[in-house]
Structures are given as structure tokens and as C-alpha cells.
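Re-run with default settings, no changes from the original entry. Doing this only to confirm the output is reproducible before filing.
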Amino acid sequence: MKFGKFEIIPFVEQRFKLDGGTMFGVVPRKIWGKLLPPDEENLVPMETNLFLLKAHGKNFLFDTGLGDCLSPMERKIYASTGETELDSGLRSLGLRPSDIDYVLLTHLHTDHAGGTVRKEGETLVPRFPKARYIVQKIEWNDATNPNERTSAVYIPDRLRVLERAGQLELVDGDAEVMPGIKLTRTGGHTAGHQAIEATSDGFTAVYYADIVPSSHHIRIPYVASVDLFPLETMEVKRKLVERLLAGNMAIGFDHDIDIKIGRVVDENGKVLVRKVE
């Protein structure tokens, strides 16, 4: 999708599954099951959708998906084969990992940050050798010091590879990466979860990652049960939906299997998402 001087392109890094109750929280299965039918194990299909932003002559990658360094336990958690399409997805866009200038990480859960590294023999190295990896300071501190609730989704040994390589950049709160490219700390899903907004010539594309993981989650009370601060998620989402309805904007979804980028519309009092091709 081109807007002004910018272009944003989604591609699928990997397909996986998660428990439906986990994804929809307090919403009953009788309701969410009609939106995203589960399999016999109550798992719903998900994708790790990544977004490449071309702006200012640079390549920005939003999140990195699961990657190919998953442990057997992680493959079980995500019902994943561990076969990433990260490199092939970039190749389809005429790019190599070395062409990525910035990796903007919304948060450091494995399904968003697992692809930051790759194996070189038995050693982990940054997958994008020339990139700056940008993440919120509070998210980094939480991810490198996980607790009993978060230790399954934060893997410090993988993350510290970025720090040792000197490619990590921490921000504290809202920040502008380059003109028109803004990071906003949202909280909600995690304390340090951040959103990415790109604006050019009066049009804004936003990526709020796990605040709105799919088009179904545009509904305010549809909040995943893994969110650490669900009331924050709801408040951030409420304000976001108001902006999406009123402004010249589109939103990218990190886990939707159908709509990668959509426009939010009000049809007869019902808030819906329409796909942007």
C-alpha cells in the first residue's frame, strides 16, 4: 500500500495456532467460535504478519515473527513447525536481511521477536546484520528478567544477542524514529508494548500489534487473556478506534489470517474492518 512518499507491504512469516480462549479472553466461545472456528483441541489459526515500510530511502521492518530458533517446547506452545518464511518473504520483495535498516519491535514475546536472531553454526547472531533494533526500555528490562508468568514468552539468551552485537537501541516512551515515523508506548499487552505509526501526505498507517491482533479484536472488550493490563488495552483501543473512524488512516493486524491491512468503518452503528488490498 502506497501513501504519500511511503509504502508499506505485509507478508506472512509463519503460520501457527493458539488456544481460542487465550486469544479472546472473557468473550464466550459461542461468540468467538463463529468468527474464528477452532479445531478439536480448541486451537485457532493464526499468522505472524510482518510489515515492511519503505520510507526516507530506508527499510523498516515491524516485528520479526517466530523465526527458526524455536525450542521443542516453543513449537508445542505455538503449534508451529518452526519453518519461517522471513528470508523468503524479504526475497519476494527484492531484499536480503542485510538490506533492513531498522527493526521496530512492538514487544519481545517470541511470536514477535523470535526472528531477530538466526543460528550460524551453533552460535546465535542477529538476523539483520546492519539494522538498529528499537524497543522500549521497560520492555527490554522485563524481557531480560522474566517472572513465572512471562518466562515462557521471553527468552533472555536470544535477546541479549542484540545487545552484545551493539545493535540494540532502547527508547523510553514516545519517540520519533524519522520524520513521519513514530513510536508510541501503549502498555496493555505488556508494560512496554509500543505501537508504530507512519504518516505521509496526510495519510497514516498504524500497527498496534497485540493491542489489536486481528480484525475481530477491533471490538473494545475483545482482549486476549495474556494481556497483563487488559483495562489499559481497552482504553488504548477505544481511543484508537475513534481515530481510525475519524481520520484518513489504515491499520495493520499482526495475527489476522485474512485482513493484513484494513480501514475501520461505521456501518449503521456497527464498527467493521474492510480489507485494503
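The domain at 2-275 is CATH 3.60.15.10 (Metallo-beta-lactamase; Chain A). The mean pLDDT is 96.
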